[in-house]
Specification:
Order of helices and strands: HHHHHHH
Number of domains: 1
Distance between the termini: 38 Å
Shape: globular
Strand content: under 5%
Helix content: 55-70%
Length: 165
C-alpha cells in the first residue's frame, strides 16, 4: 500500500510542475510586455520577480506584500492595483512602480532596487549611503540576477535554490 501511494504521488508531481511552468511563461510574457511598454529593463523586472516571489503567482509576505512583484497595500493603492493577486494588475503595477523609481533615481539601478525593497522615502534621504544590511544584501542579489540575465541573453532565469525571498 505504501508503494502504491508513493507511485501515485510521483506521477502527480510532473503535472503540478507543468502547470507552474505554464504560469511562469504567462507571467514572463506580461513581464516582458509591460517592461518594454514602460521602458524598464526586462532583466531588472525578471530579477525583482525572482527575488520577491520566485515566480509564484500570489505569495503573501509577513509584512503584507502580495503577488508576483510583492506589492504593499499602499503602493498598490497608489498605482490603482485593485487585486494584487491578479497577474496582469500586479505586474503592471510593479513595473509602473519600477519605472517611476527609475525616473526618481535617474536610472541608478542600485537606488531603484533599494527603494523597491525599503521604500523610496528611506532611500531618498540617504541615497547610496543607505546601509541597512538587508537592503544591501537585496541590492546585491538583484544586481547578480540582472547580470546573470544579461549573460544569458535575457532568457528567464530559474529560481535559485536556497535563496531567500
Amino acid at each position: 500500500m505504501k508503494w502504491c501511494c508513493l507511485i501515485l504521488a510521483l506521477l502527480a508531481v510532473p503535472a503540478v510542475w507543468a502547470g507552474n511552468g505554464d504560469e511562469q511563461k504567462e507571467a514572463d510574457y506580461y513581464v516582458t510586455e509591460y517592461a518594454r511598454h514602460y521602458h524598464v529593463p526586462v532583466e531588472l523586472v525578471r530579477a525583482v520577480v525572482e527575488q520577491e516571489s520566485g515566480w509564484h503567482r500570489c505569495p503573501v509576505s509577513s509584512k503584507g506584500a502580495v503577488g508576483l512583484l510583492q506589492l504593499m497595500p499602499q503602493t498598490a493603492k497608489r498605482l490603482n492595483v485593485k487585486n494584487r493577486c491578479d497577474l496582469r494588475q500586479n505586474i503592471s503595477g510593479g513595473v509602473r512602480y519600477l519605472a517611476w523609481l527609475m525616473t526618481k533615481f535617474q536610472g541608478e539601478l542600485r537606488l531603484v532596487a533599494a527603494a523597491y525593497y525599503a521604500g523610496e522615502t528611506h532611500v531618498l534621504r540617504r541615497g547610496l549611503r543607505y546601509a541597512n544590511p538587508d537592503v544591501v544584501k537585496y541590492v546585491a542579489s538583484i544586481r547578480e540576477r540582472v547580470a546573470r540575465q544579461q549573460k544569458l541573453g535575457g532568457a528567464p532565469i530559474e529560481r535559485t535554490p536556497g535563496r531567500s525571498q
